[in-house]
């Protein structure tokens, strides 16, 4: 599948009429008595408490530990063949991408994760030209890779086409990356794609969702996968890096 520069228009934001349940994260409308007052945009019934706390996102980090933050609105919520996705407009962090109930990245600070994932291996490599991204559907890893002038080809392989198209629509910060002719966008399982390709890569990057059991990325965090699939696809002096939970 070739990359496309067609970025669909973003639909208007909306809020559900009741709390939205995800696999691990909850969106609720607390006002002290369990009823909904306000619509998430600061327009409530005149009660200042309702206007301040009309919509919140909450996620369990571990037992006895949760975090939550206030929302301006819910831009999108839905489910693909592989995972649940939400895009939230949060008050403290801007747009935030949630997959399978776990926060993946937020507009205000996603650069910290993506710069840390991409630039150390590329700066360590003597002449990185060809890169393979496992996952990376939101486009931010590709964006950082394409800043390097030595890079001639970036293959981004994500299993979920709906997530990729969703991110193209909503995450305008990555529009330029999706339109870069050096980017080859493939919709496939990363393991299957690596196995069938003959070429080797200077850098392979795992930018995958967390290994939730039963999720699409669970088998891509194993020692067997790294040794038998990833390592043979590295060129001489090649580097493999992945995010870890």
TrEMBL record:
Example GO molecular function: thermospermine synthase activity
Enzyme Commission identifier(s): 2.5.1.79
Superkingdom of origin: Eukaryota
One GO-annotated biological process of the protein: polyamine biosynthetic process
Pfam families, per database record: Spermine_synt_N, Spermine_synth
Reaction catalyzed: S-adenosyl 3-(methylsulfanyl)propylamine + spermidine = thermospermine + S-methyl-5'-thioadenosine + H(+)
Enzyme class: transferase
Sequence intervals crossing the membrane: none
Coiled-coil region list: none
This protein's UniProt keywords: Polyamine biosynthesis, Transferase
Gene3D superfamilies in the record: Spermidine synthase, tetramerisation domain, Vaccinia Virus protein VP39
Stretch forming the signal peptide: none
Active site location: 207
InterPro entries in alphabetical order: PABS, SAM-dependent_MTases_sf, Spermi_synthase, Spermidine_synt_N, Spermidine_synt_N_sf
Keyword Transferase in annotation: yes
Domain PABS, chain residue ranges per copy: 54-245
Keyword Transferase recorded: yes
Similarity field: Belongs to the spermidine/spermine synthase family.
Protein name: thermospermine synthase
Biological source species: Artemisia annua
